[in-house]
Amino acid sequence: MTMYGVPSHWRRYKERYRLSGTRCETCGNIYFPPRKVCPHCRREGKPVSMNFSGKGKVYTFSVIRVPSEGFEAYAPYVIGLIQLEEGPKVTTQIVDCSPEEVYIDMPVEVCFRKLREQGKEGIICYGFKFKPTTDAILKK
Amino acid sequence: MVGIVSYGVYIPRWRIKTEEIAKVWDQDADRFKEGLLVEEKSVPSLDEDTVTLAVEAARNALNRSPEVNAKEIGALYVGSESHPYAVKPTATIVAEAIDATPSLTAADMEFACKAGTAGLQACMGLVKAEYVKYGMAIGADTAQAQPSDALEYTAAAGAAAYIIGRDSVIADIEGTYSTTQDVPDFWRREGEGYPQHGGRFTGEPAYFTQVVNCTRGLMERLGTKPKDYDYAVFHQPNGKFPLRAAQILGFDKEKVMPGLIVTKIGNTYSGASLLGLASVLDQAKQGDRILVTSYGSGAGSDSFSIVVTNLIEEKRDLAPSTEFYINRKEYIDYAHYSKFKRQLRGFVN
Amino acid sequence: MSNDLGTLKKSDVAIVGVGITPFGEHWDKGLRELVIEAGFAAASEAGVRGRDIDLMLVGNMSGGMFAGQEHVAALVADFLGLNPTPAVRVEAACASGGVALRQGYLAIASGLNNLVLVGGVEKMTDVGGGWATSVLSGAMDFEWEAYFGATFPGIYSMIARRYMHEYGLTRDQLAKVAVKNHYHGSFNPFAHYRNRITVDDVINSSPVADPLRLLDCSPISDGAACVLLTSAENAKKYTDTPIIIKACEQASGTLTLFDRRDICTIDATIDAANKAYLNSHISPRDVDLLEVHDCFTIAEILALEDLGFCEKGQAGKMYDEGQTYVGATLPVNTDGGLKAAGHPVGATGVKQIVELVKQLRGEAEKGRQVSGAEIGLAQNVGGSGATAVVTILERGD
Q1: A81 contacts C158? CB cut-off 8 A
Q2: Domain C132-215+246-395: which CATH class?
Q3: Range list of H helices, C68-189
Q4: For residue A134, what is the nearest residue in chain B, using CA coordinates?
Q5: Diameter of chain C by CA atoms?
């Protein structure tokens, strides 16, 4: 959707580029995306910024064949929930493999891709997607 | 001494075979394969561009040098002729993605296929002058070629990133030398989608003049001879040109072959000579001496004389090799190639 | 329990009139025409004059994105001739209608209002499919789900895949949800789709978001529904068959699917249902029929479990045994559900109430009337489970 302005993308660069979240120093819970309030400790919480390793496993996935506006060219594409090794899950696209190759518990790692474009004239929005791990490819 | 602290590469997963392109234009694939020595070329996904390729290569370089904190990178240059933005530096996005911001200088380089090595030299200067602790130079391209142009058989996608510094180097850079002249062998005007070129004019007066003179200039300056080198990497727009340059300069073919990867992935433009060097570093041993000469149309060359150190062994396997990416591939037909390259008329986003 | 309405409320709340438009593609009607049609039907039933209505609530997800129209409540009040009656739009994605009902329920229960018209409306077919998909994806976390290419069918299909993985639900069992809902819909003159379908039809329909296919998904529909609320003690002034709202409870869960404790459970449904059972002193075994939020076939499976009608992982078997048909042990979605009756998102939560009222009054069409129905339960969900409303109705005579 091209209507959303440049600042709305820019203010999320850190989290989308580097897959960063927060860890609450009070309870140790880890959150993605970052939260200013720990839902567990609330006022007593002390959320601090942290970067995830980018490694995880496919928790569940789907193959999107009827996409939203802006994703037409990519369909069919795989969307999944990745369980990060630090605990939290993220919604992301799984790339560099065919839909038939994806399975629950498949090991994956983060990569850097274009997420969407604001038309031909507007900005390009980059961020994380996930792909099969190098180790898994080498084993094949 | 200034040297290479680390390197990382990236090549997209898709390949198209020379035969598949020839089929569309009713051309003789064998003639092109013999003429160019290119069997297939890499193609980026729809969600890949020079920025994403550069980031992947940069991250691999950082993974290969755990001692480098990205915040210590004081200079970052991305050389490419396919920067996604005409105005808005690729280098800013790469620097943000690898968490090198905000305390660094960054810029995009453009010098046809040698913009990556131009960045390498800039980093060497800043490191040597002790303005920065580390510099990162990246050559990355998703090369464009007009459909049915002979360039279509080779214009490919790939990236290589190098971290330049003084400590913990896997290879010393003994010296560098460049040549530059005004030679209109290949160009793309502002706003045009595809480059134009001078056909055979790109050969003798352009590529060979620069590559040969530059390489000789470096060896003269250092007092080295072809026999002093274990490997030689020349810019590789196709398989023939670097082999011919080696022959003119007196390098054995065996010294060129380990770095000659154009046959498997095509011409990655700004990434080409740096990917060739990475392929050599993937297998070189301590003490090996490597000659690298890039070439950029327009025209000029940068030559480097590099000596591998003992640290290569402990860092090499910390990131995927060039061979890993060369072998990680899926073939596509020309229809999908057209889609991935956004060549279809009326194609949405 | 601090928010136990059973102890706070001043009066019981009754439904004294209902109205609904046919659901489907209304090329010749805009948002305002749809609400007028349903609103007048509800008011006429009860013999109510516009000036008697002292609050208008409109459940509407996205008049702005679907029809370019915000400020929907004022528009609707104006065109219904209700000015200067206060009018409020209520938005909670696909639970907008259910939440609007609850706001109306609170208004009457508190004693501050006497007669409240609760409407729900969505005009969806003025935009193309890609845009509609984008607008609906606004019901999830735009920045962390939709932004990455997730669609609503995609979110529910990820639930379906995980559920199948954990509990062994089969593709056929899932299909049977849609088959049953189309069967029920075939008796409903207001349903968007009245054709009967087979399991083969479902599993061979075009893939939307694997493993879900077109016939697993509720359609994009236009439509409106309205109910008229008053206190139980005043109800007989308007109708001989008032229907009492025994409970209308709401709960919130995480907006994102990935933050859930368990993606195969909608905790908000459990929380809202537990409160509703507690406040109404009604338990699942007392319930004669259900209206649940089957935006996708998998959602109906989750609903039966989360509302306490079977153990986790067991709902699929109820479909093998045909238990959810009219005439069987637990009739579910007797109007065809969202799947066959249609899903104009803002209208759906109110439509569910209209259907339960018709059923409890014994006024549903032949073929889908649950005989002797006295207690009905509705579950309305917003997003992938961030909002849930559970309402329990009982005959008031």
Answers
A1: yes
A2: alpha beta
A3: 72-79, 96-109, 129-136, 152-167, 171-185
A4: B320
A5: 56
Query: Annotated active-site positions of B, please?
Result: 81, 113, 235
Query: C127, C148, C267: which to substitute to probe chain A, counting the most A Cβ within 10 Å?
Result: C148
Q: What DSSP string describes C3-54?
A: T-HHHH-SS-EEEEEEEEPPPB--TT--HHHHHHHHHHHHHHHHT--GGG--
B348 CB neighbours in chain A (<8 A) are: 72-73
Query: Domain residues of chain B, as ranges?
Result: 3-170+312-331, 175-308
Cα distance between residue C280 and residue C286, in whole Å: 11
ipTM: 0.95
**Domain B3-170+312-331 is classified in which CATH homologous superfamily?**
Thiolase/Chalcone synthase (3.40.47.10)
Looking at the complex, report in whole angstroms how far the Cα of residue C309 sits from the nearest Cα belonging to chain A: 26
Q: Which amino acid is at B251?
A: F
List CB contacts (< 8 A) between C153 and chain A: 62, 64, 66
Which chains have at least 3 CB atom pairs separated by less than 8 Å from chain B? A
Of the candidate CATH numbers 1.10.1410, 1.20.1530, 2.40.50, 1.10.287, the domain formed by A54-139 belongs to: 2.40.50
Q: Which residue of B has its CA nearest to A129?
A: B47
Q: Following DSSP, what letter does each residue of B59-82 receive, concatenated?
A: HHHHHT-TT--GGGEEEEEEE-S-
- Which of A49, A112, A129 should be substituted to probe chain B, the one whose Cβ sees the most B Cβ atoms within 10 Å? A112
Task: Going residue by residue through chain C, which has 397 residues, state the pLDDT in tens, using 9 for 90 and above.
Answer: 445 555 566 789 999 999 999 999 999 999 999 999 999 999 999 999 988 999 999 999 999 999 999 999 999 999 999 999 999 999 999 999 999 999 999 999 999 999 999 999 999 999 988 889 889 999 999 999 999 999 999 999 999 999 999 999 999 999 999 999 999 999 999 999 999 999 999 999 999 999 999 999 999 999 999 999 999 999 999 999 999 999 999 999 999 999 999 999 999 999 999 999 999 999 999 999 999 999 999 999 999 999 999 999 999 999 999 999 999 999 999 999 999 999 999 999 999 999 999 999 999 999 999 999 999 999 999 999 999 999 999 998 7
